[in-house]
Amino acid sequence: MTVTVERLENNEVKLNIEIESSVSQWEYDKACKRLAQRVNVPGFRQGKAPKNILEKYVGIAALQREVLDNLLPTIFQTTIEENNFDLVIPPNVESYEFRDDKSLKVTAKLELKPEVNLCEYKGVEVEIEEFKNADDVVEKELQVVADRYATLKDITDRKSINTDIVNIDFDGYADGEEIKGGSAKGYMLDLAHSNFIPGFAEQLVDHQAGEEFKINVKFPDEYHDEKLKGKDAEFNIKLNSVKEKVLPEINDEFAKRVNPKFNTLEELKEDIKKFAQNSAKAENEKRITTKILDTLFEKINVDIQITMINREIQALMEEFKQRVNMQGGDFDKMLEQEGHEKIYNQLKEEAEKRIKTSLIIGKIAQTENITVSQEDVQQKIAYMAQIYNTSTENIISEIQKNMNILNSINQQIITEKVTRLLIDNAKVNYKNN
């Protein structure tokens, strides 16, 4: 067997593989025996169909693919290791020639990761605006927690105020036509935390339960539905009920209700304080990391091939599509209106940044011999189980179904370790707020 390696442009490598006919035919016969055991050929017992009958039944192409699937992985792996290739995607078989009286010839392409020539990444000097918690952060967070335990009291002796919860029926019209998705019955709306169109919740204040009235609003110019952007609209409202939030008294009993591990209110406050401190630390580390990577971006040039960029753009496009559709928009219609080229150009810069970040982090990990241990993976799985409120067994089960999840976990761990290395070695200057 011979393998010829030919370097091409755009970080591509061409492999010309030639396998002797004796080897290829031996593998072909083995493939026939394997397939004969897996398929039922009418008129023959399992595994007993002659080769010529099997070729007619399953097709010679299927048998040849079986040979390639059995031979090529080892050849590719050996070639990759011998040449120290760092692949972007698995090898792609472009063509093959398979004949009884000749050797098996295969042409394959490998796409390599672009070369990254690192600059000095330790001791990077950065300046950030330090995030600091407000002096009353604990008291404010206590109020947020208390709000979660609030009860609702029906109000009939006064009009609605901007801190109430209301139950409404509504239907909306723009340009004389009913708005698609612009109506509902028995909708509960928190007037203090509404994500409706600006001006909608505000006009529900100062009304009595049982009252029916109209409100007028204007859709934002950046609204996701092209038909409604900047349009005036009218909504018919029926105010079914008005409810007032009744907050619990914040004391030791409240602390025990939040979590049985707390015996006193002071213990709950201390827990909130630690959480706020950790959150502030995480935010500052995020700012430091962003600044370091921005600095490295400016100093490191990476020649990224267009094929990598296009794949990343496609991934970003799918993410964008899911966001638009989840928000009630029509992605295909938006793409038609905005134009594919415009969307492509908008996503290209983000795609290049993502790829470059990944390549730089990967190169630093390689340089520093940063690896992922089994313990690292176990800790990450335990953390994921806690975040998603499930068991580690369920996470492991999902990984077994889709190994891409494990690849993602490994990449997250590498990124976290490299990030920690960069932060620990950075020279950070904090701006005065």
Q: Could you characterize what this model shows?
A:
The chain has 433 residues and is α+β, with helices and mostly antiparallel strands. Among the domains are: 2-111, Trigger factor ribosome-binding domain (Alpha-Beta Plaits, 2-Layer Sandwich), CATH 3.30.70; 151-246, Chitinase A, domain 3 (Roll). 48% of the residues lie in helices and 21% in strands. The protein is built from twelve helices and eleven strands. It has helices at 21-38, 51-58, 60-83, 137-148, 252-258, 265-299, 306-326, 331-338, 340-367, 374-387, 392-401, 404-425, and strands at 2-7, 12-19, 92-97, 104-111, 125-129, 151-155, 165-174, 177-190, 212-218, 232-246, 427-431. Strands 6, 7, 8, 9 and 10 form a five-stranded antiparallel beta sheet that branches. Strands 1-2-4-3 form a four-stranded antiparallel beta sheet. β1 and β2 (12-19) form a beta hairpin. α5 crosses α6 (265-299). The longest helix is centred in the middle third of the chain and has 35 residues, at 265-299. The mean pLDDT is 90.
In short:
By secondary structure, the protein is an alpha+beta fold. The protein contains twelve helices and eleven strands.
The quaternary organization reads as: single chain
Give the CA-CA distance, first to last residue. Answer: 68 Å
The residue ranges in which pLDDT falls below 50 over 5 or more consecutive positions are none
CATH superfamily of the domain at 2-111: Trigger factor ribosome-binding domain
Number of helices: 12
Shape: extended
Q: What is the mean predicted local confidence, pLDDT?
A: 90
* Biggest beta sheet summary: 5 strands, antiparallel
CATH topology-level name of the domain at 2-111: Alpha-Beta Plaits
CATH architecture of the domain at 2-111: 2-Layer Sandwich
**Number of E strands:** 11
The Rg value, from CA coordinates, equals 31 Å
Q: Class of the domain at 2-111 in CATH?
A: Alpha Beta
Beta-strand residue percentage:
15-25%
Order of helices and strands: EEHHHEEEHEEEEEHHHHHHHHE
